[in-house]
Write a structure and sequence with these properties.
Layout lengths: L7 H14 L5 H16 L7 H32 L5 H6 L9
Amino acid sequence: MNLERLPNEEKLTLCRKYYFGGFAFLPFLWLVNVVWFFKEAFVKPTYTEQLQIKTYVKCSGLGFLLWVAVLTTWITIFQHFRAEWGEVGDYLSFTIPLGIP
């Protein structure tokens, strides 16, 4: 998508949609929001909607980093303790690995 062709009001609307879409457990939308709108928020000369876009981009970046931290922590804990959790660990697994843990 070429953001250069969109008017500033539509850029703000699109940025807002991606920001709120990230709250539906879709953190990938926050990453897309940061990548697409970073130049609009921090590099381009100032315009009226830029302050709101900058806020959405910052919050999207923070939300994405928080999701990555939580997901990485969970994956690390699960991989380390799955065998010790016994039956509960097996129920949480999509596939049960064979062999000695």
